[in-house]
Amino acid sequence: MTLYIGREASKLWKRICAEATTEINLLLDNWKYVLAGLIFQYIHGLASHGVHYLHRPGPTLQDLGYFLLPELGQDKAYISEMVFTFVFLSFVLWTLHPFIFKSKKIYTVLIWCRVLAFLVASQILRIITFYSTQLPGPNYHCREGSKLARLPKPSNVQEVLLINFPQGVVYGCGDLIFSSHMIFTLVFVLTYQKYGTRRCIKQCAWLLAIIQSLLIVASRKHYTVDIAVAWYTVNLVVFFVNKKLPELPDRSNGNSPVLLPLSTKDKDSKTKEENHKLLNVNSVDHADRP
Fold this sequence. Notes:
Elements: H1 2-52, H2 64-68, H3 78-95, H4 108-132, H5 157-161, H6 167-170, H7 180-195, H8 199-218, H9 224-244, H10 264-288
Helix pairs in contact: 1-4, 3-7, 3-8, 4-7, 4-9, 7-8, 7-9
């Protein structure tokens, strides 16, 4: 038994090392895209913090979701955060599965390049929307009378750039018309829908996205329009960005080389080159015939 465990552990370690070597090579080729996507996450947080200075509390807007869904209350607002955390961690673990499992369909670096592209495109639209129109935040700490509803003018630039982490992220106000949590959730679900392999997990993922939407409204963290805008906008962003990006190599057959995906121009030139070779071979065959 000990010998079997040791042998399997050795195989697993070799698999992890081989996968790490492959992913490091891909990261060396794509580090600019990964770094740009991560930097924009900070820019998105900075923009959300900046709009808090413009936020002016007021009466909560009339909302159909607030009439239909019972209010969870401030003490149960953590439920939606727990669901989001579960979705986020589950997706991260799935993107790391090539390091452990033999059955592999994706490259971790390439899938994160794609995910970051989806997030950046969606977050740019989100920043444009909440800076175009400031709405009174429906969250409990954004209502009239709360000390966090308005931010005093910053005394220095450092106060703005540091975003007052983590309080500035958790207790933000004004970044409405588009739910940030739903951007991440829908990008993760849509990515797994295309590149995942388990049908039951895909169905559970969509169910969790719906539950997350309802919990956000029930927790009064966003208006219903914020959720509705996120649902159709993120789907459109993923659809159009997918059409612009080259297709990812499929590793499920076990024969795909460790190469970056070819662009459409590269594929066309490669096809023309192969056709040209075939024509030359056929012409030689005809010339050799008696």
